[in-house]
Amino acid sequence: MADVRVKARREPVLANGASPAPAESGAWGRFGVFAECLLTGVWIAVASLGGVTYPAAFAAGARHLRRSTAHEGGGWREFVADFRTALRGGWLAGLAGWAAAGAVWVDVHAVRAGLPGGPPVGAVGLCALIGLAVAGLRAAAVWEPGATWRALLAAAGRRTVLDPAGSFLLVGGLAVVALSAWLIAPLAVPVLGAVAAAAVAVEERRRH
Fold first, then answer.
1. Taking the model in full, what pTM does it have?
2. In a domain, 14, yes or no
């Protein structure tokens, strides 16, 4: 009789001796990521109810999505812990964002009032506000505990200019949120998670 030898498949082993969790594949894995994005959008919306807490909410949401795509543990409790940490200094970034929005609102009213030079000033103000929103998303996408918002926003501002393709992608994401809010207001809530995921993807794309 012929000698039959069966070669066992060698499974990869982690440094601690444990076998890694099987990676999700196919449509089911993509659906799981999509569902996680929608859930994260709800979390971000709830955490943003404080008015000036939206930078910290997006930072916590982006970190949760990074853990999820890396198949690391984490849920609502970890999101809340990250949110509280990001809120230290993050509320100042939120306040600055509202101040910028108020300045653009004044510019728009100047355009409507027919003041000389109003349209160019209004257009510049609107573009600046969009740029600040993109920089804020990019800063939130790479936030880690211990990072300062001033340094994050400064670096994100440079990336916003040097990576126009990624920045335009985030502008499209913000446009989708605005359009969703205009058509069906509740739909904009879960879409916030997709915008956070887009910011994470843009930063990962630039890093690699």
1. 0.80
2. no
